[in-house]
Write a structure and sequence with these properties.
By secondary structure, this protein is of the alpha/beta class. It has two domains: 3-126, Rossmann fold (3-Layer(aba) Sandwich); 138-241, Winged helix-like DNA-binding domain superfamily/Winged helix DNA-binding domain (Arc Repressor Mutant, subunit A, Orthogonal Bundle). The protein has helices at 17-29, 40-47, 66-74, 90-98, 111-126, 165-176, 184-191, 202-216, and strands spanning 9-13, 33-37, 54-58, 81-85, 103-106, 138-141, 144-147, 152-154, 160-161, 181-183, 226-229, 233-236, 240-241. A five-stranded parallel β-sheet has the order 2-1-3-4-5, with helices on both faces. It is elongated. The N and C termini lie close together (8 Å). Mean pLDDT is 81; it is low at 1-5, 128-134 and 193-201.
Length: 242
């Protein structure tokens, strides 16, 4: 698929959970596929099997620092890197940029500015990031169609399906990790600020999954589109096309 006609994948490595959730949601609602990581170790495991178009990297991470992650990435990839940090000195910015980062933002962050910086580094790395074309932001699975830009879901018969914001966000996460086990804790983090309580626990995810299942029904052959892995989480079973 041409670069401008696909959803770009953003990795956000930030150990502050509430900030990671806030930024992930804003980036996702701006039309990007987003995965959040609390540490360099979490990101390293995912990077081995996933390709990201942009990496947003906190400088002060627990354990392996963001600076070390940047060095590691630059030995392997030219992926655009945006540092985010509470360190605002001129020296800190220079160090980050000289290590190979493409941009450096100081906390507290304006989520809108971060999205603008993401688009900017993508344009520099790959050419113009356009929002033209009917298929931009469209995700298809099992004859269903999801429009991420308009936040709309369409059934195989073409009818629009009513879906809540939390259900839509959860579906985006599942579509971003098809045919893989996704843990309840990860899903809870991604949907946290749509839920009635931050302390609602795993059960809130189970309720959202149950709602999604009722709306999605089953795929051909009666196989559930969302399969439960007991004690772990869920698997989104269909092939996802973008």
């Amino acid at each position: 698929m041409p670069f401008e006609n696909r959803i770009h994948r953003v990795a956000l490595i930030e150990d502050d959970g509430p900030l990671r959730t806030l930024l992930s949601r804003h980036i996702r609602q701006s039309g990007f596929e987003t995965r959040g990581f609390a540490s360099a170790a979490e990101f390293g495991a995912a990077a081995a099997e996933s390709d990201f178009d942009v990496v947003i990297l906190d400088v002060m991470l627990p354990g392996t620092s963001g600076l070390d992650v940047c060095r590691w990435l630059r030995q392997r990839s030219n992926v655009p890197i945006i540092f985010i940090s509470a360190k605002s000195s001129h020296t800190d910015r220079i160090v980050g940029l000289e290590l190979g980062a493409d941009d450096y933002l100081v906390k507290p962050l304006d989520p809108g500015e971060l999205v603008a910086r993401i688009r900017s580094v993508l344009r520099r790395a790959n050419g113009p990031v356009t929002e033209m074309g009917a298929e931009v932001g469209i995700v298809r699975f099992a004859n269903w169609r999801m429009d991420q830009r308009r936040r709309e879901l369409y059934a195989p018969d073409g009818s629009r399906v009513s879906i809540s914001e939390a259900e839509f966000d959860l579906l985006i996460v599942l579509c971003g990790m098809p045919q893989r086990v996704v843990g309840r804790e990860f899903l809870l983090e991604q949907s946290r600020d749509r839920l009635s309580s931050r302390n609602s626990g795993d059960r809130s995810i189970d309720v959202l999954i149950s709602r999604l299942r009722r709306k999605l029904g089953t795929s051909e052959g009666g196989r559930d589109l969302i399969r439960t892995v007991r004690g772990v989480g869920y698997v989104f079973t269909p092939v996802v096309e973008r």
